[in-house]
Design goal:
five-stranded antiparallel β-sheet, 50% strand
Length: 328
């Protein structure tokens, strides 16, 4: 059973043009990041979309593009970082934390193996695990097929200098906001990748493609992804951009990826419904040349409900809920 929680336009949410780059959940709040200068981090009631308050910003004039949460209320915010600058990450206990803790301050230099003129980092972050225990933080490097990975053990970052990982099956440049989402915190865990050219399931041991999702007619760009365990199954939420290179027409999709062999199912397969569980209507905004978007998921009611949130920059936010009913 599913239902629409809310749809809020960019005007209703007081968004600035082209500025909203990230959303994530902390407790009962949906947090949205604006890459203004200084950056603004806003908290909204995640069940109604009603604005609550602005979250403390310790970054000064540094731009913040992304935030990620661990499902407990804790979250991280990190800086957009060109080569030659420091990548800085703060950890918050919740949306009311006015004294967040700096956990990473890393002097970033673009790897010599990246030929692209860009090579900046911090446009897209992903986290898997528990910020008080074991976790993995990933930051993709723009215009490349590389990402950086930090490990957390016992709530502490164990390598301020990150591991450089190459997705070797990918094109040399995978766009400005490629995304890599691990399925667990284990070293060498497999992961999903969403890039300018594909949505795919990747081997964490070899960093090569296991299988791509079949392209969908009309989709001109794969957008953000999020991974969540719910109702004894694994789900991948995904944003798709359709038809127009204005990037103003998006769709929210939910895949059941519990059986990873289903990832290769073609749309024409009679079993395709075992993979694609939900597709929203097309959600329209204004011209969005930076292809800004994000997606996140969270549960409530002791895990009986799953909420999925899609951000379309210059469009707004769509929130949808799925409910699990116990068998009689």
């Amino acid at each position: 059973i599913d239902r629409r929680l809310f749809v809020k336009t960019d005007t209703e949410l007081a968004f600035e043009n082209h500025m909203q780059t990230s959303l994530f959940v902390s407790g009962d709040y949906l947090v949205i990041v604006s890459r203004t200068n200084p950056s603004v981090i806003r908290a909204y009631n995640r069940f109604t979309g009603t604005f609550s308050h602005t979250i403390a910003n310790p970054f000064g004039s540094r731009l913040v593009f992304q935030g990620v949460d661990d499902g407990s209320g804790q979250f991280l915010l990190g800086t957009y970082t060109p080569s030659g600058s420091n990548f800085v990450v703060y950890r918050y206990h919740d949306v009311f934390d006015t004294n967040p803790t700096k956990i990473i301050d890393y002097g970033y230099t673009k790897p010599t193996t990246i030929a692209a003129a860009d090579g900046h980092m911090g446009r897209r972050l992903n986290f898997s695990g528990d910020l008080s225990g074991k976790g993995v933080l990933i930051a993709s490097i723009s215009s490349s097929r590389f990402f950086l990975r930090w490990k957390i053990e016992g709530g502490q970052v164990v390598n301020n200098t990150p591991e450089l990982v190459e997705y070797s099956s990918g094109n040399a440049s995978l766009g400005f906001i490629p995304e890599y989402v691990p399925v667990s915190t284990d070293h060498g865990a497999n992961y999903f990748a969403s890039t300018i050219s594909e949505l795919a399931y990747i081997s964490g041991a070899s960093n090569t493609r296991i299988v791509p999702f079949e392209p969908t007619e009309g989709v001109i760009l794969p957008g953000s992804i999020a991974y969540q365990r719910f109702n004894q199954a694994d789900y991948l939420a995904h944003v798709r951009f359709f038809w127009s290179y204005n990037m103003d027409r998006a769709q929210l999709v939910l895949f059941d990826v519990t059986n990873k062999s289903n990832v290769s199912l073609p749309v024409s397969s009679p079993n395709y419904g075992q993979l694609r569980m939900y597709e929203s209507e097309h959600f329209f905004g204004k011209a969005n040349g930076n292809s800004g978007n994000d997606v996140c998921m969270a549960t409530s009611e002791n895990g009986d409900r799953l909420q999925v949130y899609m951000l379309l920059t210059n469009g707004g936010v769509l929130a949808h809920e799925f409910t699990r009913y116990a068998s009689n």
